[in-house]
Structure formats: C-alpha cells, structure tokens
Amino acid sequence: MFNLLLQFTSKNFGDDPESQVRKNETMMSYFGVILYQIHVGVSGITSRTHIREYGKNIVNNSADNEDFNDDVADMVDDLSESLQDDEIETTSDLMQSLTDENETVEAIGEVFDTYMRNARNSESVDKFIRSIKKNVKYYHDLNEDGGLIGSLRYNEVSKDQLNELRTYMRDLHYLSKELFDKYGKEIG
Q1: What's the predicted TM-score (pTM) here?
Q2: Can you tell me the distance from the alpha carbon of 29 to that of 76, in angstroms, rounded to the nearest whole number?
Q3: Of 111, 103, 31, 97, which Cα lies nearest the Cα of 64?
Q4: From CA 23, how far away is CA 108, in angstroms rounded?
Q5: What does the DSSP assignment read for the chain?
Q6: Which residues lie closer than 8 Å to 123 by C-beta, 6 or more apart?
Q7: What integer is the mean pLDDT of 127-152?
Q8: How many CB atoms lie within 10 A of CB 176?
Q9: CA-based Rg of the chain, rounded to a whole angstrom?
Q10: Judging by beta carbons within 10 Å of its beta carbon (0-12, 13-18, 19+), is residue 121 exposed, middle or buried?
Q11: Using one digit for the tens of pLDDT, what is the confidence trace for 45-81?
C-alpha cells in the first residue's frame, strides 16, 4: 500500500519546498486513513482498492487534497501523539489504542468517506441521483421493517441509542427539507 502512495505522491508533487510540505501533509493524512482502515478491518484487496481510490479521488485533485489534509490534520496529529504515548508492541496493542481513540479514528473515517463520496458523486449527475435514490430506498426499507435493520430488535437497543437515532433522524429530516427547498428554488 505504501508503494501506491509513493506512486501518487511522485506524480503530484514536485521537488520545490512548498510541494514537499504538501507531500508531507498528504503522507500524514494517509497515516490517518490507514489507521482508520485498520480500525474498521479493511485489508487485502479491499484496502488496496481504497488506497487507489484515495489517490485517484483525493491526492490527484490538488484542491481536494489540500482541503482533506486541512480537515484531518488536527485529528491525525492528536491520534499520532496518543499512539506515541502508548506502548505499542503488538497488533493487539495497536488495536486497543485505536479502540481507545475511537472517536478520533471515526472522525477521520467520516471525513475520508465524505470526500470519497463527493468525488464519486461529482463524476456525473446520474451517479449523484442514483446515490440519493439508494439512500431513499434504504430509509424506506428501514421504515418498512419497523425502524430497525436485519434481525435487530428493540430490546437490543438502549434508550441512549434510541435517543441518538432520534437525533440523527431529526437532523436528516431538517436537512432533507432544506435540500428540498433548495432544489425547488433551482426549478424556479
């Protein structure tokens, strides 16, 4: 995987000092993405594919790369400092440290996923619409299944988790209304 990043960085960064700074920032962001992938269990061919997509969709686009680096810089620094403070000698130690820093690792992952989704969606309007349609179908199916997915039952969900779900659903409701209004204004 590191070789893939070297390929992307050698194509996208020159030898001048400013390019080297951006290259180092990209390497630190890459560190955060790899730790996120380790944390969520992405490995093998899937991991290689994610890194290729990271290079293609983020590193190759200098504006997105700089924005992504800026958005994750503080989180990656915090995670790096935390990991340096831990005595990591085994994979198990690393996994425990990542679990201890779950909030930071997940935040890096959310930023990464957002940039990747935006890059994929910007490829075409049809892909963007299909993505929205897929999400609508997901929420429709969720509603049809009584509000939970798969074999999950309400007795397995705590009150705190239900409140968290309600908060996200409320946010989704308000955001969807705002977007609905924006699209209506564009129609005119």
Answers
A1: 0.63
A2: 7
A3: 111
A4: 19
A5: -HHHHHHHHHHH--SSHHHHHHHHHHHHHHHHHHHHHHHHT--HHHHHHHHHHHIIIIITSHHHHHHHHHHHHHHHHHHHHHHHHS---SHHHHHHHHHHTHHHHHHHHHHHHHHHHHHHHTT-HHHHHHHHHHHHHHHHHHHHTTT--TT--GGGS-HHHHHHHHHHHHHHHHHHHHHHHHHHHHH-
A6: none
A7: 88
A8: 14
A9: 20
A10: middle
A11: 677 787 788 888 888 877 788 999 999 999 999 999 9
Instruction: Evaluate the CA torsion angle 76, 24, 10, 60 in order and state its sign.
Output: positive
Q: What is the mean pLDDT of residues 71-95?
A: 91
CB 75 within 8 A of CB 108: yes
Contacts of 23 (CB under 8 A, 6+ apart): 9, 12, 13
Q: How much is the average pLDDT of 7-29?
A: 78
